[in-house]
Amino acid sequence: MELINEFDVSVPIDVAWSVLTDVERIAPCLPGAQLQEIEGDEYRGIVKVKVGPITAQYKGRAIFLESDATAHRLVLDAAGRDTRGAGNASATITAQLTSAGTGTHVTVTTDLTVTGKVAQFGRGVLADVSAKILTQFVDNLEQTVLTDVTAGAAPTAAPATATAGAPAAERGSAMTEESEPAASESSAAAATAPTVRRIDQPEPEAIDLLESAGTPMLKRAVPVLGVAVAAVIIWRLLRRRR
Q1: Which of 56, 199, 205, 211 is the most buried (most CB within 10 A)?
Q2: What contacts 18, CB < 8 A, 6 or more positions away?
Q3: What are the boundaries of each domain within the chain?
Q4: Are strands 2-9 and 42-51 parallel, antiparallel or unpaired?
Q5: How far apart are CA 133 and CA 208, in angstroms?
């Protein structure tokens, strides 16, 4: 099924592009999501969803198929599987950014395929859920990441690992031929180290699909309730005639 959502952010298009393509930075803003590791261009993590008393966790990966900074267009391929084997989801997500005054307008087109418990909701409910989740994402983005960007906040530099209390000149002169083999061994170890980078992000709260679905779920429930009430009335009338 195809879902189309739109939103606006209050920063110029080049800034918005830089932020929205920084997956590690924006992942905590997406409800229910947790980025866990990065290997090359592949991002891996989980998404938690809740359907009434049932909680499902999708573990998956995402990779950029296209990232055109000139046209401000990106295409993301994502896939996930329920960790209990009860279903899976896959999506091709296309985002197109356009200038909107001093801000940026973003159109997100999602070609979504789902199986399992979540699939029972149908297109109408999933469209409403995706719109509400995207609204929460944008609110979180504006309140955290974009606030830092507009305030001109820069990432905090990692503390130096040099020996405390030793001036740079002394540290340089302290390097001897004996230390060179150790440095070479260290470089070799770094070269053979795994390329997977672990990401430390807080555990996400599950997205409550029933709560997010809201009105569409009620609309779908009304005909069922109507049939049930009619059946009870007919049953009572027949019983009185006996």
Answers
A1: 56
A2: none
A3: 2-153+196-216
A4: unpaired
A5: 10
Residues 103 and 20: beta-carbon distance below 8 Å: no
What's the rounded Cα separation, in Å, for the pair 2 and 137? 20
Tell me the CA distances in angstroms from 38 to 24, 43, 200, one per residue in order: 9, 5, 11
Phi-psi sector, 159: left (phi>0), alpha (psi -120 to 50), beta: beta
The rounded distance, in Å, linking the Cα atoms of 80 and 32 is 13
Task: Give 108 or 52, the one with higher predicted confidence.
Answer: 108
The structure tokens 């170890």 sit at 189
Report residue 193's pLDDT band, with 50, 70 and 90 as the boundaries. low
CA 16 and chain centroid, separation: 16
How far apart, in whole angstroms, are the C-alpha atoms of residue 217 and residue 121? Answer: 8
The domain defined by 2-153+196-216 folds into Alpha-D-Glucose-1,6-Bisphosphate; Chain A, domain 4 (3.30.530)
Name the band, by pLDDT with cuts 50, 70 and 90, for residue 67.
very high
Q: Which two tokens stand for residue 75?
A: 């295409």
> Hey, CA dihedral for 40, 205, 127, 225, is it positive or negative?
positive
Q: pLDDT band for position 20 (50/70/90)?
A: very high
Are the beta carbons of 65 and 59 closer than 8 angstroms? no
Is the pTM of the predicted complex or chain greater than 0.85?
A: no
pLDDT for the residue numbered 51: 72
